[in-house]
Amino acid sequence: MLDFPRWKVIAISLLLAFGVLMSLPSLFFGESHKYWPTFLPDETINLGLDLSGGSHILLEADPADVARTRLETMEESVRAVMRRADPRINIGDISRQDGVLSFMVRDSTQVDAAREELLPLTTGAGLTGQRDWDIEVRDDTRFVLTPTSAGLETAVDNAMDTATDVIRRRIDEMGTREPTIIRQGDERIVVQVPGLEDPEALKALLGQTAKLEFKLVDFEADPNAVASGRAPVGSQIFPYPDNPTGIPNIAVKRLGGISGDKLTDAGQGFDQETNAPVVNITFDTEGGARFARLTQNNVGRPFAIILDGEVLSAPNINEPILGGSAQISGNFTVESANQLSIALRSGALPVELKVVEERTVGPDLGQDSIEKGMLAAIIGTVAVLTFMVVTYGRFGFYANMALTLNLFLILGVMAIFNATLTLPGIAGFILTVGSAVDANVLINERIREERRRGRRIIQAVEVGYKEASRAIFDANITNVIAGLLLFIFGSGPVRGFAVVLIIGICTSVFTAVVVTRMWVALWLRRKRPQELVI
Amino acid sequence: MKLLKLVPDNTNIGFLRWRNIAVAISVLMIIGSFALVATKGLNFGVDFVGGQMIQVTFEDREEAPVSELRESIGGLGYGEATIQRFGEPNQVSIRMRLPDEAQERPEAANEMTAEIVQLLKSDYGIDKPDSVDSVSGKVSEELLSKGVWSLVGALLAISLYIWIRFEWQFGAGALFALFHDVSLTFGFFALTQLEFNLNIVAALLTIIGYSLNDTIVVYDRIRENLKKYRKMDIVALLDLSVNETLARTVMTSLTMLVALLALIIWGPDVIFGFSVAMFLGVLIGTYSSVYMAAPILIWLKVGPDSFIPADADNGKAEKLGGPEQAG
């Protein structure tokens, strides 16, 4: 018992000093952090959103949406390659029903040529030679393209990667500080933004696909047919809520439009005549050339500006627009125009994202939680400390020292791992205080017991530590098991609780058993007491 | 210096004398808890049933306009709002179930939330609610199943550990004691209709960890005594073990309760339910370590031979039986 080698004392003291040092930057939070010397470690714990205030938003994509878009793109590509083929391959009876694309080749002698054209479209990118679509020919002339599950998976995966990037750009554009954007699972993205001014604006921005298209209006279409949603051949119907004619639909030509993804810039402005808020966009070179061609060939005709499948406005082309920039008018407010500009600048989302979970905590409530949590923690700790010293005297004092060091160590370890402190995490601290003393209670009660049985002081202390350690070990392992399950299955703040619990158990075993044992051994060796007050 | 002794030295209380009555009462309590959960149900928070909860403070009023608020939210067409006061009289929480269309459109819950936030802004000038929780049906189902799995997983993993470290009887005893603690906590939440949310699952897991802590300390002493006093009657031996660890049990429970009491009285309102659940759990857990975990060992016929390999002859067993051979 008394045999405590010098190197062990030094090693334990260094470890304690290191832990305490690592905890200090986290205690200098807020304003005072700038007085923290720079040559010392600067790792701090993070405050969870429930303490700092902010929003946690879980976005979910619908894989069916990706499949649908992919089918549409495939149809466009098939139409294009068949048209460009030499000689041109005529196809018809195109359908996208039941998640497969099917069409007829009008001339049966061209089936093989058509298959050749389709091959590059249906093979996946990369070296694996994975097929993205299965090609099947039925009744000699009908092609059926079925998406393979591997191809669809890759597509969803790519779409989610792109979506994550787009979201990051949008949030950066908003000027928000320290956002966390993480892909979660196959079809989800977690967005965490501390100290947010307006969560509703953020959600609106994240939920906007921002797919912009310009298409020519089919002004020859029969208004009655358009009103009832029937499209003339070669046209399609889009909803147009702000249509000045009062019909909530409009017919536009399928072909000859351009998409708005070739932008270099977008910004909110005002219409020079009406002074209404508008969005000014600038095309890149390729997009600008296409837009110039579209407007040159259709002077005097209206074209529809379509955002996410809904027509914003359908202005007349008064003159060719050659400069590569254009103005989007619509029923905007300054905010919504601004928001659309951000969305357009950061690119369109390849898949629609829906908010399936939101947790927002206002900064006041967060501050209130910190203050009340700290108050409760201090009162609880002081009560426990008093209790311990009144009951166990010197041994209680050692336990208290160990407990206090333990609190610093937990903070230090959390800072090293950049762990997050949440409100349940503060509760975890308080619980650790309650249960960390348990180890010392076990040891001290055992020493009392061994003394009662007549063992000599040094022997009683030795047996006390040894016998109690076994129960301490078993009890803490089971606590770690519970903590780990909480960490694995828990989410958000509850995870923060599990983190404090697990770290607290590990450090408390160290401080309560190893460190107090060292102090007791050093004291016994120096004083050789004849009486043991415990 | 005179030190405090909560429990006098060398107590000899016949705890186990009341074991039949205690276990009968406990079994009745478990059945009662199940009945309460079945009839009254748990007051699940949005975490587990979906929907939304908004907490707001009406800064410029003495008291929150509850009935007016209920009416104007009802006008949105999402059904009746559950409005409750929390903290100050001008603070309320507004809870809404999932809207009808949420089945097909997972985003419907959040759209409803946005409308209510908008209404609070336009009608009451509330710029920022204190907190907003909005959970879709699918996410809440996942949270619920994760919560259930973490509880079941913890119970099984811990029992398995006890089985490995001790004997199967101890594992079974610990599992039963934990089952008792968890059931009674559920019963308490059904009775009081306090909100049952993710934090409560965390509390339950902590209760499991704590109650087991207690059980293990008692079991560890039983194991030690079984090896030390090989001829002693099992009931007397269990009583001795419980008495020997009594001072520690009381001391630790009290420190835990003191820490938790601070959390209940001065802690944030957000984790009030959590703190209450923990406080109750410590009480139940301490009780169950003595009156559930120990008696079961009698019925499962634990004896000094439980720690000796079946094929060992008696002479060898005698040598193995020292306290050093633990585990």
UniProtKB/TrEMBL annotation, chain A:
GO biological process entries: intracellular protein transmembrane transport; protein targeting; protein transport by the Sec complex
UniProt signal peptide: none
Residues in Protein translocase subunit SecDF P1 domain copies: 160-218
Keywords: Cell membrane, Membrane, Protein transport, Translocation, Transmembrane, Transmembrane helix, Transport
Key word S-adenosyl-L-methionine present: no
Domain SecDF P1 head subdomain: 246-351
Gene Ontology cellular-component terms listed: plasma membrane
UniProt xrefs under Pfam families: Sec_GG, SecD_1st, SecD_SecF_C, SecDF_P1_head
Positions of transmembrane segments: 373-390, 397-417, 423-443, 471-490, 496-520
GO molecular function per UniProt: protein-transporting ATPase activity
Main localization (coarse): membrane
Domain Protein export membrane protein SecD/SecF C-terminal, residue spans: 353-522
Domain of life: Bacteria
Cellular compartment(s): Cell membrane
Coiled-coil region(s): none
Subunit structure, interactors included: Forms a complex with SecF. Part of the essential Sec protein translocation apparatus which comprises SecA, SecYEG and auxiliary proteins SecDF-YajC and YidC.
Job of this protein: Part of the Sec protein translocase complex. Interacts with the SecYEG preprotein conducting channel. SecDF uses the proton motive force (PMF) to complete protein translocation after the ATP-dependent function of SecA.
PANTHER family per the UniProt record, alphabetical: PROTEIN TRANSLOCASE SUBUNIT SECD, PROTEIN-EXPORT MEMBRANE PROTEIN SEC
The name this protein goes by in its record: Protein translocase subunit SecD
Native species: Parasphingorhabdus marina DSM 22363
